[in-house]
Amino acid sequence: CVCVFWCLCVLVFRCLCVLVGQMYAMALKLIRSMKNTWHWAALWLVCASFQPSGKVYFRNPSFEDTPRASASPVGWYSVTPGSTPDIMPGAWGINFMPQEGNTCIGLVTRSENTTENIAQALASPLEGGVCYTFNMYLAHAESYVKFDSPCRLRIWGSATKNDKGKLLASSPLINHTDWRNYKFQFFTSGEVRYITMEAWYAPGVTFKYNGNIMLDHCSPIERCDRA
Fold first, then answer.
1. Is the peptide bond before 125 cis (omega within 30 degrees of 0)?
2. What is the DSSP letter of 67?
3. Cα(42)–Cα(74) distance, rounded to whole angstroms?
4. Would the pLDDT of 207 be above 90?
5. Which ranges of 33-159 does DSSP label H, i.e. alpha helix?
6. Of the ranges 22-31, 93-102, 110-119, which one carries the lowest mean pLDDT score?
7. Could you tell me which of 75, 59, 45 has the C-alpha nearest to residue 218?
8. Can you give the pTM of this predicted structure?
């Protein structure tokens, strides 16, 4: 009888996990179809409180917001003042279409050794001493108001806001104009509450230059086996 009782408990728990996951997925689909910024913000706050077990979902993972220059989409912010991304398509007359939803973002590197970044407080902190992985789509805009050279993306993690913290992962040089899916895998040395995504120069270069990288559609962060 005891065994039957525990089996029923496990079955009910699994059913609840599946139900919560399905509700979360439906909410994400609904959010991506909406254009009103205030509706976005309210729904993401609701979704953040129902994180399915084992996954950490980004708020607004497809960077949905009103297209404009020098602005962070709802749910995101810039660690570096004055170095905000551009919400595409349409900013600076650049019509780069998103991989998913209605908008994506562009980050640039500059010849005076400054770069743009975008950050977010995670809905649930990442534990220290654990392997994590997530995917996102990256591309390069061939023409970006003279910020036309290819660059790469660096991922940082920290325990405090407005601090990039420690470098977790880096993409290869992104020199293709089509959207491609990239996997980031990293090992946390300490608790991570904030994730920062930063445009950075090509590996091995000895000079700084004007470049761009396009971002869209982040997957949830999941645990993985350490490589």
1. no
2. -
3. 10
4. yes
5. 37-48
6. 22-31
7. 59
8. 0.78
